């Protein structure tokens, strides 16, 4: 039995624009997906999920064909979850050159699905790591991140950047621009997350931005402007002292950029009433800045606040189902005892 876990993430800046080659800076947070893998004697794959914002399910299918498993699933979220696990299985089989390897897989996740916290990336990263280790072929981190990206790319019909999977693999804050991915130094920023209990469809949201970009010049300019915000944010982080607590001045400046970034994402049509409400509640409570995180459409916002005010205010905000602080996860994927 091999158990690996990988963290979720928030986007400090740059989601959506990263799909078009602009830079993005996601940061891993201490909410993890844990994947347990047991090799089987046949080529079947049995997936059990305890959490994943699902009611808990088990499915078993015959693997090895490369096709999407044909199993009866109760909801689109479960369907999406199985799609990611299956893509991870295919990558692990290819990496270990064992096309018929079968597995019993259990997924336990603290990261709500489709909510902008990188649940699918964390499951894919931990799944590939656990499955390749179980087959005696562990991957180095760069190859693991690459295979996890390919799994997401496949499930999202080619609409994926390397940002979520690289961040979940490496932990900490990272910078991604096209195929160029590097960890960067960042102080432990005081993230506060607000979750509306819902989910967005990443594929649909990314496709919506693509259409807007093709139809309107303003949308292409907006994507480039998001890139400018990311570059400004990177400079601020590069000037900060990584291990020290972030200064108030840094939080104010980063927060202002996060506010701009949220406005531009809203212009691209990927915000939602619940996300805007939480963003404003966080700002009203004194957060230094707030924005949606991830694909949008519903799910989570991230705010910067070293005090308790934002988290308390969010927990009383209509439409906010859960508010919590999130520590930067300095460790990426890891083997669990
Ligand atoms: C989704 O978490 C982030 C997007 O930028 C898509 C991607 O980068 O793959 C919307």
TrEMBL record:
Instruction: Give the main localization category.
Output: cytoplasm
Output one GO MF annotation.
galactokinase activity
Q: Where is the GHMP kinase C-terminal domain?
A: 251-310
Instruction: Extract the InterPro entries matched here.
Output: Galactokinase (IPR000705), GalKase_N (IPR019539), GHMP_kinase_C_dom (IPR013750), GHMP_kinase_C_sf (IPR036554), GHMP_kinase_N_dom (IPR006204), GHMP_knse_ATP-bd_CS (IPR006203), Mev_gal_kin (IPR006205), Mevalonate_kinase_arc (IPR022937)
- Cellular component terms, GO, for this chain's entry? cytosol
Cofactor(s) for this UniProt protein? Mg(2+)
Output the Gene3D superfamilies linked to this UniProt entry: 3.30.230.10, GHMP kinase, C-terminal domain (3.30.70.890)
**What keywords is this UniProt entry annotated with?**
ATP-binding, Cytoplasm, Isoprene biosynthesis, Kinase, Lipid biosynthesis, Lipid metabolism, Magnesium, Nucleotide-binding, Transferase
Known EC number: 2.7.1.36
The listed locations are: Cytoplasm
Catalytic activity as recorded in UniProt: (R)-mevalonate + ATP = (R)-5-phosphomevalonate + ADP + H(+)
Q: Where is the Galactokinase N-terminal domain?
A: 3-38
Query: Record's Pfam families?
Result: GalKase_gal_bdg (PF10509), GHMP_kinases_C (PF08544), GHMP_kinases_N (PF00288)
- Per UniProt, ATP binds at 112-122
A GO BP annotation = isopentenyl diphosphate biosynthetic process, mevalonate pathway
Active site (catalytic residues): 164
Q: What EC class does the entry list?
A: transferase
Q: How does it assemble?
A: Homodimer.
> Belongs to which family?
Belongs to the GHMP kinase family. Mevalonate kinase subfamily.
HAMAP family the record matches = Mevalonate_kinase (MF_00217)
Query: What does this gene product do?
Result: Catalyzes the phosphorylation of (R)-mevalonate (MVA) to (R)-mevalonate 5-phosphate (MVAP). Functions in the mevalonate (MVA) pathway leading to isopentenyl diphosphate (IPP), a key precursor for the biosynthesis of isoprenoid compounds such as archaeal membrane lipids.
**Protein's UniProt name:** Mevalonate kinase
Organism whose genome encodes this protein:
Halorubrum alkaliphilum
The gene name reads: mvk
């Amino acid at each position: 039995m091999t158990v690996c876990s990988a963290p979720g993430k928030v986007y400090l800046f740059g989601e959506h624009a990263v799909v078009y080659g602009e830079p993005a800076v996601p940061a891993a947070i201490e909410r993890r997906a844990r994947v347990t893998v047991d090799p089987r004697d046949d080529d079947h794959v049995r997936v059990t999920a305890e959490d994943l914002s699902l009611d808990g399910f088990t499915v078993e299918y015959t693997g090895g064909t490369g096709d999407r498993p044909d199993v009866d699933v109760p909801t689109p979220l479960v369907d999406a979850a199985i799609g990611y696990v299956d893509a991870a299985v295919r990558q692990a089989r290819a990496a270990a050159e064992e096309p018929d390897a079968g597995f019993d897989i259990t997924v336990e996740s603290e990261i709500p699905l489709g909510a902008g916290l990188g649940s699918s990336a964390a499951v894919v990263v931990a799944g590939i790591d656990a499955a390749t280790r179980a087959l005696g072929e562990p991957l180095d981190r760069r190859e693991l991140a690459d295979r996890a990206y390919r799994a997401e790319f496949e499930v999202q019909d080619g609409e994926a950047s390397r940002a979520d999977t690289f961040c979940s693999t490496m932990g900490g804050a990272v910078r991604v621009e096209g195929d160029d991915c590097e960890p960067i130094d960042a102080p432990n920023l005081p993230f506060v997350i607000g979750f509306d209990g819902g989910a967005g469809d990443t594929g649909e949201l990314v496709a919506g931005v693509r259409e807007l970009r093709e139809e309107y010049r303003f949308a292409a300019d907006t994507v480039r402007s998001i890139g400018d915000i990311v570059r400004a944010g990177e400079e601020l982080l590069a000037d900060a002292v990584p291990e020290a607590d972030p200064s108030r001045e840094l939080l104010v400046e980063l927060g202002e950029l996060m506010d701009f970034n949220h406005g531009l994402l809203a212009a691209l049509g990927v915000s939602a009433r619940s996300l805007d409400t939480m963003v404003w509640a966080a700002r009203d409570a004194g957060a230094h800045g707030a924005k949606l995180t991830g694909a949008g459409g519903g799910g989570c916002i991230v705010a910067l606040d070293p005090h308790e005010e934002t988290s308390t205010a969010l927990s009383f905000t209509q439409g906010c189902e859960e508010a919590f602080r999130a520590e930067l996860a300095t460790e990426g994927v890891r083997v669990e005892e």
